[in-house]
Amino acid sequence: MATIIKKSVIYQLLFAICIYVPYLNNYELTFAIWSLTAFFTIQKVYTIGIIKQLLCFVLIIALAIAVFFFKNHQLYFVIRDITYLIKPFIGLLIGYQLCKKFPLLAFKTIVFIGFFIAIIHLFLIFNAVIFYKATTVNDIRFYGGYFSDFEVYALIVVLFHEKFQLNLSRQKAILYAIVIGFSAFMYLARTNFIQFIILFLALKGYFEVNKRSITVVVSVLILTGIGYTVIYNMNPKRNGEGIEALLYKIKIAPIEPFKTKINRDDWKDFNDNYRSYENIMTVRQVSREGLFSTFFGQGLGAQVDLKQEVWLGDMNLRYISILHNGFMTIFLKTGLLGLFVYFISIYLLFKKTKSNFPIVNQINLLFVGTGVFLIFSNWVFMGVYNLSDNKSILIGFLFCLREFYMKSDNENLLNESNKAE
């Protein structure tokens, strides 16, 4: 056992690096490290389950390349789109391949990395408050980071550590939960709050259709509605101080990504509903070019014309290659056909694998929660195509881990059968 742990350390470290590097917000560095890791850990054999998932993203890239030959996009944007669209594929490979090196330490590794990232995040916030006088929500997020899906996953694993067969003492479990939970909260990201609720309900089994689950989900929706009504009636200010800025974002959340009419001359309306504006302009641009464009997209290198310059990140742009909405990004590049393939990749997460191992059932539930969350995440924050996201690694990791326990389960059944004979 000691030898196995020693051999696994280098792969655990590599896994931690791949998980953390997107937090540095340097996509070129992320792409380089992920690509090298995927290449040097390549496997000889892959199972049907992971191949199906990988194939979805290969088909999306292939479709975008095929359509490109009918277009005249600039080579720079074509190459950049390739690196963007291949990211989930590489992430799946990394997670799947590295998990094979330390399956028995998988969930413990997730918790340790989540705890490590949380410590760094809290230090960044402390540093920002002390040295940069960061007191507003926007300042804290600017210096500390805008979201951390991985920490939410780590928190869920800690909260359900017994079901994931983690031998954590009560003291350690409380410590990890407090540190990781507080760090995840301090991103003040609406998507992370939604993610936590979805994963928590999934692990509790409330997404299985029965009287109990329907009652719980309906109750959560009612409480959410009441909470939103209270916040809406509080009428938080757009540029309010402290938590008021977060409350304002929650207030506009149901409208922000779904609005169909936006007044470009009203800067408040435009800024508050910019995500919807991207969607509107994308649908108009793609559909305007006819049925071919609608069904097959505009290929690699395609950009959306926003009709005006918009300050995004640290650049003033009129033409954008990727949008906040992951579904719309795929629609732009590959049309309705690419969207259909992308939805298949999410659907595959809902397919449960039957097993006598309780931990396999927990991984199944985690996949269900991930699938539900990806629908929300893609609509507002690009899902697995987000340049700062590492969920694809975790998804590949869980695929491998489920297969590992399934294989162990089948071997145990075979041994029991042989004994019986």
Account of the protein in words:
This protein is 70% helix and 4% strand. With 421 residues, it is mainly α. It has a two-stranded antiparallel sheet with strand order 1-2. β1 (304-312) and β2 (315-320) form a beta hairpin. α5 runs parallel beside α18 and α6 packs across α7. The chain is globular and about 60 Å long. The model is unreliable at 413-421 (pLDDT under 50).
Low-pLDDT runs of 5+ residues are: 413-421
Give the structural class: mainly alpha
Q: How many DSSP-defined strands?
A: 2
Q: What percentage of the residues does DSSP assign to strands (E)?
A: under 5%
Secondary structure tally, helices: 18
What gross morphology would you assign?
globular
Range of helix content: 55-70%
SSE string, helices as H and strands as E: HHHHHHHHHHHHHHHEEHHH
Mean pLDDT: 89
Termini, distance in Å?
Answer: 31 Å
**Alpha carbon gyration radius:** 22 Å
Tell me the strand order in the biggest sheet: 1-2
Profile the largest sheet.
2 strands, antiparallel
